[in-house]
Amino acid sequence: MLVTIWKSILHLSVLCFLILLPGIYLGAQDILTAENYFDEISQRYGKIQDYEADITITRGEDIMAGKLFYRTPNLLRIDFTEPQDQVLVTDGKLLTIYIPKYEVIMEQKLKRRSQAALAT
What we know:
Blueprint: H1 2-20, H2 34-45, E1 50-59, E2 62-71, E3 75-82, E4 87-90, E5 94-99, E6 104-109, H3 115-119
Antiparallel strand pairs: 1-2, 2-3, 3-4, 4-5, 5-6
């Protein structure tokens, strides 16, 4: 059961990372270095202060759904409708997950990373 919970956390982390990455422009361009690419991304999306999105995570037969809230610089919250009332919250320093089905609150300190480290 704990393995399933941690797998869900891992999948949510990957999803959050993918949401934060922009799509890659597929048109013809000059060769673009990684540094220049991330500079362009920072300029283009750096002014976004917050957003929210309805999300669905599907893995085999398992489906998770909810509403994601993000606020600069590192505030993230997901209020799940499936599984009912489950909540994931992080301020960039601490990850907290509430699982009402098991009456459990799990907390884990997060390692501090620079924004550049998160992009690589």
